[in-house]
Amino acid sequence: MFVLNPKPAHEVLGLDETWAEEFQNEVEAKFTL
């Protein structure tokens, strides 16, 4: 069984918090398909 953890380390990637929230929403939506 897989467990989803869609919270990227946006600081390490050099991206902002808005990007991280959008990424998390998209990953969660696709994972539940």
In short:
This protein is mainly α. The protein is 58% helix and 0% strand. The two termini are 15 Å apart.
Produce the secondary structure layout.
Blueprint: H1 10-13, H2 17-31
Protein architecture, described:
Helices cover 58% and strands 0% of the residues. It has 33 residues and is mostly helical. The protein starts with 9 loop residues before the first helix and ends with a helix.
Question: Which outline best applies?
Answer: elongated
- Output the number of helix runs: 2
Residue ranges: pLDDT <50 for 5 or more in a row?
none
Helix content: 55-70%
Q: Please state roughly what percent of the residues sit in beta strands, choosing from under 5%, 5-15%, 15-25%, 25-35%, 35-45% or over 45%.
A: under 5%
Please give the number of β-strands.
0
Structural class by helix and strand composition: mainly alpha
Q: What gyration radius follows from the Cα positions, in whole Å?
A: 10 Å
Sheet with the most strands? none
Q: Which terms would index this structure?
A:
mainly alpha, elongated, 33 residues, 58% helix
